[in-house]
Every structure is written in C-alpha cells, then in structure tokens.
Fold these 3 entries.
Entry 1:
Amino acid sequence: MGVLALVRIIIIPLIVLFGICWFFPESPRWLAKVGRDEEARYILQRLRGSEGEDAIKAENEYQDIRNVVIHERKTAQSNTYWHMAFGNSGKLHTARRVQLVIWLQIVQEWVGIAGVTVYAPTIFRIAGFSSEKSQWISGLNNIFYMFSTLICVFTLDRIGRRWTLYWGSVGQGIAMFLAGGMSAAGIAATASGNTQAASAYGAAAASFVFMFTFVFGATWLTVPWLYPAEIFPLEVRAKGNAWGVVGWSIGNGWLKLLCPVMFNAISEKTLYIFGACNILSIPMVYCLYPESNQRTLEEMDLLFAADTPWVWDAERNFERLKLENPDLVAAASRGNSVVDAESGLKRGGSIENDEKSESL
C-alpha cells in the first residue's frame, strides 16, 4: 500500500467528522458569552432536564455561567496570557498553576514517550531486529498503546490523578531500565556471535518497550492533558489549557531534536535517561501537584490559596479554610466563585458581591 492510499484512508474519518460537527450544539458558556442566553438555557435544559428539580438545577447552572461571564468582562484585562504567567493574581496564584501545567507536559515527554513513539524502530534495531521487522513491531506497539488508553477510563477517578501518575512513573521507569539493559545484552551477544541469545534479549527488550507504552497510555498520556482543565478558574480555563499545550510543544520539540543526537551518541543508554526521568517525576508530583480529583474549580481556588507551592501546605491550608469558613465550602459546592484575585476569599459566594470580599 502506497503513501497516497494511506493518506486517503486517514482523510475519510476527517471528512465524516467535518460533516457531523455542524450538528453539534454550541457550549452554553460560549452562548452566554456572546449574548445568546435563551439558547444557552435551552441546551442546559436538554442536558439537565426541563421539569421539576432538573429545571431548577439547569437554571442555577445558567445563573452561575452568567455570573462568570459578568466577572470575565470586569476582569478581562487581568485574564491575558501575559498576566496569567507573570502578573500578580493575589491568592489565586495563577502564575504557579501556569508553571505546573507547563512542566507537567514537558516531563510527560521526558518520561520517554517522545522517544519511543518516533524512534521505536531505532530502539528495536538496537535490540537486534531487522529494519523490516522493527517497523512491523513498532506498528504493533502503537496498537497496544491505543487500547491501553481505555484503562484510565476505569481507574482515573477511582485512584485520583496523583496515584495515576505515581504508578505510571514506577511502571514506565522499570520498563525503560529493563529495555535498556536487554538491548545492551543483545548488542553484546550479537558482537560475540551468539545469535540465539541476541534474539532472546531482543525479544525481551521489545516486550519492555511494549510494557512502557501500555503503562504510559493508561497513566501519563491522560493526566497532563486533564489537569489544566481542573485547576484553573473558569474565566481563564481555556487559556490555562493553552498554556498546557505550550508545555507539550516545548517538551516534544526539545526531545525530538535531542533524540537522534542521544541515540547516535549513547545508543541504548538513552533509555536509562528516560528511566531516570520517570523516577524523578515521582517526588515532583508528590511535592508540587495537589490532587484535583472530585474537587470543583472553586475548591481548587481554595487549595491554591496557600502562599507556598508545597502540596502539604496547600492541603493544610485548605482544611483550615474549610473549618474557619464553612460558608465558603457551601459556596464552592454550588459552583460559585470564592476567591477574589486581589483581596482573597469571598464570604458571600457570589461573583457579583465584590464588596464583601476580604483578604486571607
């Protein structure tokens, strides 16, 4: 099958998607933002229900969205990309969140996936396979990678974001070190003329590469893309996701340029570097990345209100705020803003009650 035939096959689902996307409903938040309020209400009622308590919930959600839209217009100047990364956001600590999502995406690439997906044929050739077989095994590896993403559907909310990253780092680190070791053994066996041992070591190295991509698909593939959507205030949520893409671009581009240099210079030892990055990612996540699972965006504002970047301080401060200000917890559970960028926490729980805000 030629390249043009493959391109035509890939284009088919894109054409189908282009055809059906015109029938997708618009986001209620976007509709409210552009003044199409009745359409926003209609879509929320279709999603939540239009009778009884469901209708009340839909209306409450619409009012929350309207409050955020009003707040966005008041604070548009402070919601720029530049201000998010370098400006003073008070107790929101938006710049800290920007740094967290950027570096999580960079580390996502350095745990090894950028090297494995692009240079898998090179890794398999280092392990002793022929060029043709390396390409075939690489394709099979990508198929396993695809199916592994289904695992996080069942585990992500059960064990949380942090534990998902923990077990992913452990599994990926082990796989990278063993893949490097088996590849080195295979190279030595080939040099000594022991083709049988070289074949066995090559198969073992390939197995550990498969293990790496399988674990990555179930863990680190998902969380760095999900985390930005869960930790930023609603008014800058889209821009927060964009900062995550910036981090991915830096990590991916950086590593794609370095991989050929590393593989040419140190061969299979490149996999040891990826293994070490997995180990280093564990204390990084433990110290700096608070759990976002089962927490509202407003509760995340409380969590990031701590003045230090350490997770234990954030959790301790969060528990203190819950005990001292139970009304804030109630406001967060209703989806209302509880943190003011300049003066701290809002007592009233409504975005429009700026005069009631006071500092921590």
Entry 2:
Amino acid sequence: MLLSAAVIVCFVTATLFVVAQNNNILDALLNNGASTLHDIITNNPNHKSLVEYMTQPDASYTFFAPSDNAIQEAGLRNNQDNDYSDRFRYYIISNERLSQDEIYKEHRLRNSSFVPKQGKNHHTPLLIGTSPDGVWSYGEKGKIIQGDIQASNGIVHIIDHVLPVPGSAEQVLQAIPQTRDYANKLKSLNMSLQLFTHATVFAPTNDAIKGINGLKQDLPTLALVLNHLIIDKSFDATSIKYSDKVVDNYGFGFNISHNAGTNSSINGIPVLMADQIFDDGLIHVTDGIVLRGGLDQPKANLPQPDTSNAMKLFTFNFIYFTALSFSILIPLFAL
C-alpha cells in the first residue's frame, strides 16, 4: 500500500514537472498571477513577432513578468490600439536562465533582449538591473513576488511593478523627481545630453541645484560646472558598486569610494541613487555638486571650476585676432 502511494506521488510529481517544462515562458504566465499580461500579448496582432520570440523552443530566457495588479496599476490595456512589444521584450534576458538565488546574490547590470530599432546605439541592447532588492531600469524597483517558475525555454519571475523602458538621458532626468531641476538647468543653458555618447552622468539633486542658483556666477562658468558632471565615452555597463573610478578617454573623471554599510561617494559627495539606466549610459544621483578636474582633485561641496586653460585660450585668441585686425587696417589707413 505504501509502495503504491509512493509510486503515485512520484508519477504525479514527474507529470507536473513534464507539464511545466513543456510550457514556454508565455504559457507559464497563466495560473501564476500574470494571466493579464498573457492575454495582452497573445490577443494583439501587433505582438506577433513578440509571441514568436517568446515561444522559440531552443531559447534560454529569464523573463521578469509584471503581475496582474502591476499591469492594472500601470493602466496597460488589452486592445489592438496599443503595441507593447518593445516594453515586454525589455523584460526578457536572453541566453541566460537566472534563478531567484542567482539574482539575489549580487547587484548587476545585464543586457536585456531589447535592441532599439533607431538611434545611434541601435546595435546595443538596453540594460536592465538585478539585485537582492529588486529589478530596475530607473526610478522604482520591481520586487519578485513569485520566482523560479520553470518553462521549457526559460524561467519566469513575477514582479510587482511595471518597469519603464529607458529613454534618453533628458527623459530619465525628468522622470526622476530628485533630478528635474538639473534637467531644467541644462535645458535653460541650451546644453543637450544628446551630444554625448556612452556617457556617465553624475546628476545633482534639486537642492544642490538650488544652492548653485544662489551663487553669483556667470553663465559660461555655470555651464562649465554642469558640463563637468557629464563624462563622455566612459560608460562600460559596470555598476558603480564595483568601480573605483569613472574616467573618459583622456583620463579625466572622478574617484569612487565605498564605505561599509553606506552608499558610494564621488570625490566625497554621497551617491543617493546609483545605476539609473538611460538608453546610452548611466545616471548616478548625487547629494551635491561633484567637481571634476582629474583623479587627484580635492574634495569640495561648491563648484570651483578650473578655468585657467579656458582663459589662456581666450587671451591667446584675443591677442591673435587683435593683431590680425591691425595688420589689415594699418595698410588701409596708409592708403
């Protein structure tokens, strides 16, 4: 009798395992708290290519699927007027089957399977972050509320938040409440982050920008201060947690220090929100204005940019063009 019961239990367990393994990551959404997402994807002809991608039998995916409640709170609708292909593909990591334990093990930036169709970085997949306290792009993190749902072509983790797909640096700075004043200040000075590629941005908080607004600075100096917070061609998809410096191709940038039990700091300025992802780099929100002038630059809380090189260049140009003007005008007066 006991032997028969044991055989039945083994048979039922094996059957359930086979059924689970025969379901792809799209089917696995059903009966696991994400059936709304399943219906939105499968009932919309605009999602045909997404369905084909998610049902590839030989794939190995990790899929972070927003729960029914998360979909409802985000206002996503199940109708044919909406195309969420890019957003849902962003939630899929390809060629990697990550268990919940592996995700919780470390703070990491990973490649999503979404590659933007347009733009200067069209060949580069957008990043998605995973850590012990959630999954993120920028802003709020999505926590795993049901993990390790096995499928034939991957593994599914149900999360409690719909993640925004990273947009431009300007869009992300405006979307993060703490950095909106910085974004507005850049705009008022006609400074565009679109001119930078593969960049790291150290974005001061609104309070820090209010402090700099109180200083009697000319616009060129202020622009120089803000420009120093953007390090062009410095982004290598490494979390700030594992970095000791961020520099550009010429070696200019910032030192990073890490103190046990606290956030990282940049030249003595605390980082409040690290690794906020935009479509061509990372944004780190800092509790103050960080100076830039090389890796040995001393700590400072208020901007004191080194403008000596700029002044030398200005003086040289002034003398040169003045002399050139006199060389042209003197012969004319002689006539």
Entry 3:
Amino acid sequence: MPGFRTQFQGYAVRFSPFEDGKLAVATSQNYGIIGNGRQYVLQMGPGGITEWRSFDTADGLYDCVWSEENENILVSASGDGSIKVWDVAAPPQANPLRSFEEHTHEVYSLHWNQVRRDCFLSGSWDDTIKLWNVDAPGSLRTFAEHTYCVYAAQWNPVAADVFLSASGDCTVKVWDLRQPRPTLSLAAHRFEVLAADWCKYNDCVIATGSVDKSIKVWDVRMPERELATLLGHTYAVRRVLFSPHQETLVASCSYDMTVRLWDYAAPEDALLRIWDHHTEFAVGLDWSALVEGLLASCGWDEMTFAWHMNGDPRAS
C-alpha cells in the first residue's frame, strides 16, 4: 500500500500487538536535533495508511512501544529524557497520562515485556537502562554498567526476567533481574552497537547491528565467536529484528537508506531482499506479530510504509 507522510522525520514504527491494522510512529522535527515531536497512531486500510490519532510533544521522539496488557496504552521516548504514556482512546486533554522524568539525557529505546506484560524497559544516552511499570510512581530499577549511550534494550521472548542491551561502548550485555550485574558482556563489534534483538524461536540466539555496517548473529552460550556475519549494508545498521514467524529470518534497516531481509542460516547468500523505498536514512523497522510477513519502516524522508516481505513497499 502507498506510504504515509508524517510532518516530521520518522524515528520508530511499531505494529499494535492487538490490532493488525494499527501502527505507531514516533517522529522528530529537524532530524531530532532540535524542535518538537509528534507521536502518530496510523490505521492501515484498503485505501492505504491514514492518521487515526496524534500527540504533540515539546521535544523530539526517538522510539515508541505499545503496552502488551492494554491495547490503548502507548509509550514514547523523548529527547528531553522524559517518557510519555498515552491513552489513545482518551480525549486529547487527558493525555499524556504520565510523564516519567528520570533519565538525564535522550531516551532512545523502549521495549515492553511480552512475557509478564506489566513492565517495560527504557535505554538512554545517559548510559543507563531503567525498568518501569506504568502504575508505579517512578522507575523500579536502574541498570548502570554501560560506559556510553544505550541504543537498545530488548526483553528475552521467553524468559520474563532476562533482557539484553546494546551500547555505544561496543558491547551487548545480557541481564537477569534476579542478578545484581550483567550475566554476559559481549564485545560484539569494534564500533558502536546500535541494535540488537533475540531470536523468537531460540532464546540463546541474538543478532547485533553496528556502525561497522555489519550484522552479527551470536549464541550467548558460546560468546567467543559469532555464528554468522551478514555483510551488505554500506552505512551503519540502525535496527535489526528477528521474524516472529520464521526462526532464521532477520530484517534490518540502515543509514544507507535500505531495508534488507536475511536468512542467517543460508549457506550461500544470506541476503534475500533489498528494498530502497526510502530516500533518506531508514531508521524505524518492525515486524507484525499478527500478520505473517508484514513489515513496516519509517525514515528521515518523513515516510512510513507497510508491506508484505514478498512485495514492494511502494506498490498500492
């Protein structure tokens, strides 16, 4: 279906876990350097993608995540260090429901716990990760072992207490809420690690994406050496995401303006598809958990697209 143009540059796109046609897009004015933000909620339909709701913020937004326990709750990560909680079914004057203001620099990453469903993580340029419950007055815990910006924090898809974090200190760390310190610190790349994700069918396997233009796949039980290296992006890899429906499929997006699809287990050529529908940095990416093969991306060209992995994002 045709893309949707947002007023500001796109930074993150997320499919609703409850409604297969609903998308959240976090955007920032002036490429996120200075200016306002807008949180969009978009609806996919026969005629394309249309705006259903939007919420304005004083600072740019870098990420967003849907609640896994309430279909109407949406959370945004802001450049001013705050985390905004929205009720998309409530009138504008009732929003935001909450504004958590503990991080001291930009909040760059959000991820909701899909096992316990009652808490979420935030990763920030203040080098920390925080654990939150939307009903608690403040954060439940702070994780402060990284020595540079945290770009991503992702819950394990099976183990409710385990998550990973990716950082500009070139490491990916694995954490367990029952332990005081990380259970693993992986020197994943020689340059900043901007993205990481868990395999949805084997929770010992993770993928990492870096400024070094590569994607690496690891088994956390054997961290000495990666299982696979996926080469092809010509600039930094901004997001890397395992398919929720096929074990070895990985999608990625990059500052090279492309979205790519990989099968890391393919012996010859792991690269399956390249999409070049963006005309600026491609920075937001998501798989639908409800519709197999459905992808969405957004970028600094102010465009958001949703398409099936066998199709063309620009086709109507």
